[in-house]
What does this fold into?
Amino acid sequence: MMESLQYFLISWLDPQLLGLIALGTFAGIYVGAIPGLSVTMAASILISFTFTWDIYPALSLIVGIYMGGVYGGSRTAILLNIPGAPSAIATALDGYPLAQKGEAGEAIGLSTVMSFFGGAVGIAVLAIAAPTVSEFALRFQPRDYMLLAILGILLVGSLSGESLMKGVFAGALGLLIGAVGLDPLTAQERFTFGIIDLWGGISFIAVMIGLFGISEALMQLHHIDKLAIKQAISRIIPSWRAVRKFLPLSLQTSAIGVFIGALPGTGGDIAALMAYDHAKRVTKDPEVPFGHGAREGLVAPEAANNAAVGGAFIPMITLGIPGDAVTAIIIGAMFIHGLNPGPMLMIDRPEMFWFIVGALVAANVFMLIFGLTGIRLFVKIVELPRPVLIPLILLLSIVGAYAVSNRLMDVYWALGFGVFGYFLKLYGYQVGPVILGVILSRLIDENWRRAIISDREDLGGLLWGTLSSPLSAVLLASVILIFVSQTPLWGMAGRGWRRLRG
Amino acid sequence: MHDKTRRLPGEAAFSLALVVLSLWLTTVAFEISGFEALSAPGSFPMAVTAVMVITSGLIFWRTARLPAAGHIRDWREILPLRVVGMTVMIGLYAAALQPVGFVPTSFLFLTVSIWMLGRTSPFYALGISALSVAGIYIVFRLIFTVLMPEGVVPEREIIAWVQSLFAGAPK
It folds into this structure.
């Protein structure tokens, strides 16, 4: 216990680490707030600059960016009706009407305080649940890991995009990119075409910077002429009465947020939409109708999406399976720093886990501080003209791709994936599943082979093993259910069922 | 935002290209180890490429049957000149980065692109670029100690010279 507390306090007692968390949170809030710049983009570009650092400072910065970025998206959702991040889509529904009524300051203040509560709930659940989950996860069979990873990709693919097919294609493409290079078990070449440079695989950072940095910046060129709208912002610190009134609701939706965030493949965006729906159902007579500036509709998603941050760390740390694109990036960064997220991490490196929890708490506090202050500076940064902003992002993307290993090859990969990602986005494909696929490729491949070898290459034996273990059976059923629910088969089954019942 | 009930220019060709890519990758995956064993190095790539073939095929089939988007006929709506121009610019920037060095290349890249995108005065672009390059250099090269290509500018000598100014007289 004392040891855990000691590890927890590492980031709090070191001024440099605390400063980096503050810097990360600050950067996250502002990047998240600029429409078109996502927290994923910020994380992917900035992480590439931290590879030469020690693991503690690198994680401090990343944790700060994540926490700040999820919150930052709500700012522009309220002020401009443009969600800065997908997790702020639900925030705009009632936040923007509030701003139109001239209550932008109060809306921002309330959303900041509620994000803080949500974040705190998420971190508390992470601290309590992760050790138990990881103990439980030690009993997982290779087939369970494989199924969990497939479940994660399917969830991201089906929930975030316009069609399951495009999501699954993107996920499979990511798995393929992750398989390029020498096979980890037999050292046989896969998709290398005789090029020695490809033996080590395609740099995950290059793929990430291309898809989230360059392609997003190119997409933004479509809207280069759009001007930022100025909003008058008044009193920002919310009244104690308002906080007390909405606290029960925010705690409820925080619980939703943690749960959704903890499912592999689902993150703050879905949590926020579900929380909004929950608020609508439980609020019998709101002072203002939902969609017209109901404060309940602002509080619920904001608490939930920040609670999802803590939740998303649970599968990431205990199973090595990312909850969303940002946690996929964090897992990639941990790999490069020689850490192996999974149930053994808690046993081999307990200090890492408690350090992350401590850093998250610090980031949550900084989010509250920066959220309630510095509004003038904020307005200035968000109004940064796009003709300046976009070239800067492109420049940082290229330098970031180069900085990882000082190879021009990575820069060209980033550029290639940037252009490819541009077309993917243009035609409605999601790029999130690609990055999840790249990260999970090796995990699925290795666990599939372990599973099938332990059953002596007998597919029937593997299937029987899966069906006779309750955990594997539930996972397999979930994978099938998600897949079927998104295809026309679901409708047919429903009609058949109704016909049967007469 | 992409409208899934209409087909954008080039969308059918793009989805067809993905089908062709997937088919080709399937043959490459097959050549890794064929149907040797379920645990062979090639079985996972084959499964993945098979999924790609099926999904891209279905996507193409659906896309081809969609009505073409009426309001967007012009290719420039899909691929504005700005996007093509900027892509070429970053390509050139990446190619020049190592031989010429970070500082001059970045400065030139930022100046030209801000000037072109913003249609502002060249002096504004020059000023903003100089500030930005200085800022990035200080944050990433000096504080975060990220290695950036030096190229033609003798950076190390300059940094050493600046440090010597603050180091006082040699003892």
Summary: Residues 11-77 of chain B form one domain. The mean pLDDT of chain B is 85. Residues 12 and 167 of chain B are 65 Å apart (CA to CA). Chain B touches chain A through 62 residues (CB under 8 Å).
